[in-house]
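Annotators were shown the component list below and the corresponding predicted structure, then asked to write short factual statements about the assembly.
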Amino acid sequence: MSESRDQRLEYYVSTAENGSSHREVFAPSSFERRKAVVEQVAKYTFLCMVILLVLPVVTLLGYLLVKAWPALSFSFIFENPTNHMTAGGIWAPLIGTFFLVLLSLAASAPVGILAGIYLNEYARDNWLTRIINLGVVNLAGVPSIVHALFGVGAFVLFAGMGRSLLAASCTLAVMTLPVIITSTREALAAVPMSFREACWNMGATRWQTIRTIVLPNSISGILTGVILQVSRAAGETAPILFTGAVVYARVADHGLRSFFPYGLGDRCMALSMHLYTLSTQVVDVPDEVLYGTAVVLIGLVLAVNSLSIGARIYLRSQKKW
Amino acid sequence: MHSKPTLSFVEFFGSQHWRPTSYYNPQYGIVALLLGTASVTALAMILAVPLGLGAAVYVSEFCSGKWKETLKVVIELLAAIPSVVWGFVGIMVFSPIILGLTGASSGINLLNGGIILALMSVPIIVSVGEDALKAVPDSYREAAISMGANRWEIVYRVLFPAAKNGLLAAVLLGVGRAIGETMAVLMATGHADSIPRSLVDPVCTLTATIAAELGEAPKGGDHYRVLFVIGILLFVIAMIINLVADLVVKGTRGEQNV
Amino acid sequence: MDAHISFDNVRVSYGGKTALRDVSLEIPRNRIFGIIGPANSGKTTLLKCINRTIDFEPTAKVEGIVSVGGEDVYKIRNVYELRRQVGMVFPLPVGLPLSVYENVAYAPRRAGIYDQAELDELVERCLRQAMLWDEVKQRLDMLGTKLSGGQQQRLTLARALSHRPRVLCLDEFSIAIDPVTTMKIEDVLLELKNEMTIVLVTNLVQQAHRLADNTAFFNDSRLIEVGETEKIFSAADEDLTRRYVTGAFG
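Structure shown to annotators:
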């Protein structure tokens, strides 16, 4: 190392003495040129890894879309499956997923948001709070099949709901609750403490402060978190597999009953379950029906996620402080 | 509640035979299932960890502005693809490819599951890994630049050592995701009873077993209860992984007294 | 409620650490009372006891009696009323993410004042008192967070005045703002002392010398000496005080 340094020093001195242009003093040595090559190699290797990841998936999605194209139409969405589910559309599963998501989030969103507000704004830092926090974080990382088992044990059997829309929605609610609590807390924590202190010092109560300053400035982050859980609830299969989703259910083709086909105690079809059924349990399903179901599910999930991401990007540009 | 059958600890963990539906002599050894989960996860991690960490490094250090935002959004959308869709891809797309390339008897096997799980775990490794790299203070990078380091040297000599805890946590969370995956493995690896002997053998994991058999097992029977015990086991494994990942990250905060 | 404040054998601790040790002190009405001392000597804790915002510190324990206007602050029925009687200005300027108008109207609205004309008059009066009116009168709907540091500090002062306090506490108000704004606020304080008691915590010894009628010197969570400012600065009783005011330490 020192040898090359001395060599370089001599090079610089000699060029200076010979009146060469100052540009040569900064000319890279062979050592530096080798380093630059290594850097480029590293950069392109990592880039290749990214491409290796992104390109196949994008190609995959394109392939799915192409194979599904013949089936995708207005009637595909609004017709029920026919002929032992080898033909027709996906209305029954679609409306089932809609109600599953609606019911589960009607339960978990308010509870999750209120719990998040309580944990971040009111709870004192004692052992109970720490256990609750630990519980919430761990619950967020539980495998989906374990949620299914819990749902079976707690809702189907213990609470006597049987396999039903209600039990499945409750299971999905339990699945989405911890993440809603966590994202609510993050959104609340993003509001600086100094704002709250300023309000308290003016004689405002905790609730007044939350209502007037904290919530208005975090509600967008909270909603973004909830929207993300909508897409997750729509896409999950395992939690509803044994708690209320069913392979086939007869649903009215027209009229009001087709928009409200499932009672709380009924078993329902669901889009994610439908894809599973068609892929593994029904024979002679034409490709476009199969791929069409998959594409509608992916499209739904990606659309909702994009909404959430878009909302997040928009809000970041509207920062008030 | 629904647990603790009349089954010995040794038989549960030690026996290789999972034959719960055998009429005369039902057996509930889960070694085959444990090995199934372990092998498919290991294969997935071999593929996902280098790819994921490499992508995390690229997004964090070699990329900026619009491209960076776009890539991050793409990765996030990738993470949102539902499990059953990945399983579908495994059955419809990868299975024929594997059949064609290897001439195996079935395209639903360990290899298929490993690839699918890898694609599912990469997004979480990338996003947590990128967070870990972002958490390294800029002052470290600036100091390295002022000493003449280029971006590769910064990554290799400064960032990896500084962020190693966070990167380890990213890998652990990826492992956790892979272990806990249900629908995709169920659809892509089939439902076999035996220990896999090669990459193209079908395999059975803990999660897939529960999903496949819970519907058929008679309620209240031994089989039913054993499936719940497996569920508890999965819960405990997931919890341990999360706790370890959490501790690993906290270790970083203890060391870094910047 | 009168504005005479007193501390009687007050001891405050956070968890295991003692922040104030056996402090007994009386703050006279309608004067500027300066509190000086090095960092971590308990000055901010003292202020937090006056309006009971120390309650928001999870590990804080307060012993002894703090009285405002003759009443023990821990026996007052409505702590929010107490906080309205005490205005507080912090070291770092804080503009709430509301319009300038709403920043100043915040406290009156919480107290139940909704009449638009009354609020308009109150907002203008407080902004004038805080020497901020001329700069913001054309842009009252601008976000408070977008003002400069010096403007935000005056906005904080206006907010503190908006709930008509009998006591105004300032905690090192000048450390993050420019000297011109500091001078403006100092002039305001000299006028305000006719209406209220002012407690001025500062780490700028000369600021206390300029403004305070009485000064207390704290060191290491203890009250070392208290008395008329002239005396503290020229002929203090305690050696420690003399060394601090001449800049030997702190």
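Statements collected:
1. The first helix of chain B runs from residue 9 to 14.
2. Confidence is low (pLDDT under 50) at residues 1-6 of chain B.
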